[in-house]
Amino acid sequence: MKSLQLAAMSFMLLLGSFTATKAQTADDIIKKHLDATGGIQNWKKVNSIKMVGSVNVQGQKIDMTFTRVNGKGARQDINIGGMANYSILTPTAGWQYYPVGGQTKPEAMTAEDVKQGQDELDIQGPLVDYQAKGNKVEYLGKDDVEGTECYKLKVTYKSGKEETMYIDATSYYQIRSIEKATANGKEVEQTINYSNYQKLPEGIVFPMTVGSEQGAVTFTSVEVNKPVDESIFKPAAGN
């Protein structure tokens, strides 16, 4: 009888452990992450965003502006030593103009680079309605990021690009991303860190510091759903 009771108790403990593990799914983490950063309904209202910030590279301050309209265009303006540089991406084309690197006119992106960059046009993020977008998400378990316990989510975009997201197990904010993509026929990997989250008037919570190997961009202004002149998504005449 005693052995039967012990067996029953062991089974109940095993069942409890299985249930707890089973409950921690990718969808569960996604929901808690979106709830923590403003809620899925607030994110689905985001149609445009303009971020103004700067990064220090070898003691030089570089001003940057990122302007994106959901599904229509993304533009990055970089001012280096008073010299204006930019890159533009649309659903069908893209251009780069970096006079700091010797360019004298905008150059068209390759068809492959345009295809690989399409995920940038989804400003609501890959986890919002991810299945409808053709993305796949897999829960990879827990990991430690510089002392912070995180959940790992592997996102495979419709384009084929892969990203591993590290979600803080306490705050449910994303604190790191490791992206794999193909550029110029080569696979590249980049690590991006997110911090200094602040709640915007529109209800979403946004990281005001985004860092990579090239340096950390600190945003001083983030505007959501402000009117955007979509002509900025075409290269300017003369440059």
How does this structure look, described?
By secondary structure, this protein is of the alpha+beta class. The chain has a single domain, classed as Clam (outer membrane lipoprotein receptor (LolB), chain A). It has 4 helices and 13 strands. The protein has helices at about 1-25, 25-35, 40-45, 110-115; strands at about 50-55, 60-70, 75-80, 85-90, 95, 105-110, 135-145, 150-155, 160-170, 175-185, 185-200, 205-210, 215-225. The chain has a 13-stranded antiparallel beta sheet. A hairpin with a 2-residue loop joins strand 3 (about 75-80) and strand 4. Residues about 1-25 have low confidence and may be disordered.
Write the layout of secondary structure elements.
Layout: H1 2-23, H2 26-36, H3 40-44, E1 48-57, E2 60-69, E3 73-80, E4 83-89, E5 94-97, E6 107-108, H4 111-116, E7 136-145, E8 148-156, E9 162-168, E10 174-183, E11 186-199, E12 205-212, E13 215-224
Antiparallel strand pairs: 1-2, 1-13, 2-3, 3-4, 4-5, 5-6, 7-8, 8-9, 9-10, 10-11, 11-12, 12-13
Reading side by side through the largest sheet, how are the strands ordered? 6-5-4-3-2-1-13-12-11-10-9-8-7
The major pleated sheet works out as: 13 strands, antiparallel
Range of helix content:
10-25%
CATH class: Mainly Beta
N→C terminal distance: 86 Å
Mean pLDDT: 89
How large is the share of residues in beta strands? Answer: over 45%
Which keywords apply here?
239 residues, alpha+beta, outer membrane lipoprotein receptor (LolB), chain A, 13-stranded antiparallel sheet, 18% helix
